Amino acid sequence: MKKKIAILGSTGSIGKNTLNIINKDIKKFEIELLTTNSNVNNIVSQVKKFKVKNIIVKNKNSYDLVKKKLKKNKVKIFNGYNSFGKIFKNNKIDYAMSAISGFDGLEPTIKIIKFTKKIAIANKESIICAWDLIKKELIKNKSEFLPVDSEHFSIWQSLGGFNVSNVEKIYITASGGPFLNLPISQFKKVKPSNAINHPIWKMGKKISIDSSTMMNKVFEILEAQKIFNLKKKQLEILIHPTAYLHSIIKFNNGTSKLLVHETNMKIPIFNTLYDKNQKILSSKRVDIKKLNNLNLSKPDFKKFKLLNILNKFDDNNSLYDTVLVSANDELVSQFLNNNISYKDINVLINKILNFKEFRQLKRKIPQNINEIVNLNKYVRLKTLDLCIKDRN
User: Fold this and answer.
1) Tens digit of pLDDT for each residue in 121-176?
2) Alpha carbon distance 346, 364 (integer Å)
3) H-helix or E-strand containing 3?
4) 3-state secondary structure of 4
5) Could you give all domains of the chain from N- to C-terminal order, each with its CATH number?
6) Nearest Cα to Cα of residue 297 among 239, 247, 236, 219
7) Average pLDDT rounded to a whole number, residues 360-386
8) What is the pLDDT of residues 194-222, one digit of tens each?
9) How far apart are CA 11 and CA 14, in angstroms?
10) Sign of CA dihedral 26, 276, 272, 94
């Protein structure tokens, strides 16, 4: 029987990688749904190649254009995520990949859980800001969650699931990005073109900036806390320039596990898409040279100042998480548009997090998606206003 699949964000990097894996074993899969915001050419090409049954095109102008281009194809075209009920009806699909980046991925991620047996989530915003809501939906609908982010995937793989009862400490590795060896004095000269030039991973602009500031590691620590139900003191970051080692787990029986794999997102995706022992993924041999020179070190908190933000967060899920993600999103956008300097990102995000109205949210647990979405809009406006005042 074919495995029924949905990919939210099929025209992005994770979505394309998922389809590339499926394409090599196409007889075992049936694409029930693909989605995009506005990438007309890619979604049209995917529909024709994979004989897709349903698609969602979120942008209205792009939706109208796709309808014209696919009028001769047997595919149902929708304009919003409320159509999940019409697409899946009462039948659960086998697997959904949530790969829509940013806050745009929040609503569809939560809404599709009731329609799928398994959901692989690559959307950081959903996990950081709405983990309590996601967890409730997973339990309610008896759906299985699979982590796709390379660090969390490696932890999940090493543990054989989510049981952390015998875990003493988990170390998450960071390559250090493009500025690992750049003197702090040079940070004031950093331009967007420098910051998006990651030495190891091929990523989008936004996540490349987060990697350069190491905000991505702040996010990954918060994600790991939520996903694996850990205390912050159980998690630590280690610099590992080659990004070959993804995590180290120290157990309370004296043993430790290290998980390595190539810097290729196809590996985490493949392992969430297939059941164990179902198929073999062709990969490179173990890199002995890299293993003999892991070059692990503790990060420089004076240099990568955003790492100190972790001190503002405790072990609770709250709306304060949304403040962090939203403020960072807006600041990265402003930096990419040359409206603020690289060093401003750290200064301004700390100002936002220190606002009394936002600090009060540390004890408020999100009750619904709208609460998070509305707070995101408000925080971004406050952040933008701060950027304008800073320029003046």
Assistant:
1) 999 999 999 999 999 999 999 999 999 998 999 999 999 999 999 999 999 999 99
2) 25
3) strand 3-8
4) strand
5) 3-147 (3.40.50.720), 149-262+290-309 (no CATH), 318-392 (1.10.1740)
6) 239
7) 95
8) 998 887 777 778 888 999 999 999 999 99
9) 8
10) positive
d(CA 326, CA 313): 15
DSSP 178: G
One-letter amino acid of 181? N
For residues 197 and 193, give the distance between their C-alpha atoms in angstroms, rounded to a whole number: 7
Contacts of 232 (CB under 8 A, 6+ apart): 221, 225, 310, 313, 314, 315
From residue 310, give the alpha-carbon distance in Å to each of 106, 178, 191, 221: 23, 22, 26, 8
CB atoms closer than 10 angstroms to residue 285:
5
Global pTM value: 0.93
> Identity (one letter) of the amino acid at 387?
C
User: What 3 state SS string does 160-225 have?
Assistant: CCCCCCCEEEEEEEECCHHHCCCCHHHHHHCCHHHHCCCCCCCCCHHHHHHHHHCHHHHHHHHHHH
178 close to 199: Cβ distance less than 8 angstroms: yes
Q: Are 137 and 113 in contact (CB under 8 A)?
A: yes
Give per-residue pLDDT as tens, 45-66.
Answer: 999 999 999 999 999 999 999 9
> Strand order of the sheet with strand 167-174?
235-239, 167-174, 245-251, 256-260
How does residue 392 score in pLDDT terms, banded at 50, 70 and 90? low
Q: What's the token pair of residue 231?
A: 């205390």
What are 83's strand-pairing partners? none
The tokens for 191 are 């331009």
Reduced to 3 states (helix: H, G, I; strand: E, B; else coil), residue 249 is strand
Contact 26, 116 (CB under 8 A): no
Token pair of 297, please? Answer: 């070190």
Tokens of residue 162, six digits? 């989510």
- C-alpha triplet 316, 321, 324: angle, nearest 5°: 145
Q: Which two tokens stand for residue 43?
A: 């979604």
Per-residue pLDDT, averaged over 84-94, amounts to 91
Q: Which residue has the tokens 């008896």?
A: 142
CB 343 within 8 A of CB 304: no
Placement of tokens 């998690």 in the chain: 235
* Contacts (Cβ under 8 Å, ≥6 apart) of 345: 213, 306, 328, 331, 332, 335
**Residue 2 token pair:** 């074919």
